[in-house]
Design goal:
This protein is α/β, with parallel strands linked by helices. The protein has one domain: Spore Coat Polysaccharide Biosynthesis Protein SpsA, Chain A (Alpha-Beta Complex). 48% of the residues lie in helices and 14% in strands. Helix 3 links the parallel strand 2 and strand 3. The protein is globular and about 55 Å long.
């Protein structure tokens, strides 16, 4: 069985019904990263959980549905184990294990930065790419900062993660993280990583045109709510100062 090194990043991989894909992904991971994996099963019913228990060193089950819920549980597990840095990675084969060394190197040289990724090339269907860019343009208009992508692969210290106060437990997780970075004016880098089509199965969100449309519509609304909340807090602070 592989050993984990607490002085290196934990690799948090949320999984939901990826029994066909994740064994192939894990097999291709560089050997020095396999022990770093914290695999979070999000209530799979296709044998994913059983495979994880037999093949991975750090596995946990999170039955509360939601990509963000699984990611958050992965972070809590990393804390419990004693890790100081984390990398998020999807388990469908779209993220390359070769990118882990690149992100780790950036974390070592920029420990106070969020290391975000832009997929180059973006392997998703056109409607998913269009939806992502629409969301990022909306963020650009509202916060005057341009992200190039919303890649799921990203690294940071646990200290920085705690600082941003994540709340979303669903598929708005990556978007909320990037908006919180802007709201708190925290430093970040956006680096290019390879992206591939998923090795098996279909995306739970962007696998269909209708799914991408629905997700984009919900997330645009979510962005507007976050901005409205930010404006309300700012005005409340001004009002409190004036009354004092």
């Amino acid at each position: 069985m592989y050993k984990c090194d607490l002085n290196r990043p934990a690799v948090i991989i949320p999984l939901l019904n990826e029994a066909r894909a994740f064994p192939l992904v894990f097999e291709k991971l560089p050997s020095n990263w396999k022990g770093q994996v914290i695999a979070v099963d999000n209530g799979s019913s296709d044998g994913t959980w059983e495979w994880l228990k037999d093949n991975c060193i750090n596995v946990i089950r999170e039955n509360r549905k939601g990509y963000g819920a699984a990611c958050f549980t992965g972070v809590e597990t990393a804390k419990m184990l004693g890790f100081k840095t984390i990398i998020f990675m999807d388990g469908d084969g779209s993220d390359s294990g070769d990118s882990l060394d690149i992100i780790e190197n950036q974390l070592n040289h920029n420990p106070n930065h969020f290391i975000l990724t832009r997929r180059n090339p973006h392997s998703g269907p056109w409607h998913a790419i269009f939806g992502t860019q629409l969301l990022l343009i909306t963020v650009w208009i509202l916060w005057k900062t341009r992200f190039l992508d919303m890649g799921p692969m990203r690294g940071m210290s646990i200290k920085l993660f705690d600082q941003i106060g994540m709340t979303d437990k669903a598929y708005g997780w990556t978007l909320e993280m990037q908006i919180r970075i802007l709201q708190l004016k925290l430093p970040f880098l956006e680096i290019a990583v390879k992206s591939f089509p998923r090795v098996a199965g279909k995306s739970k969100i962007s696998g269909t045109l209708w799914g991408s449309f629905q997700a984009t519509k919900c997330l645009v609304t979510y962005i507007l709510k976050l901005k409205a909340g930010e404006v309300f807090k700012r005005k409340s602070k001004i009002l409190i100062k004036e009354t004092n």
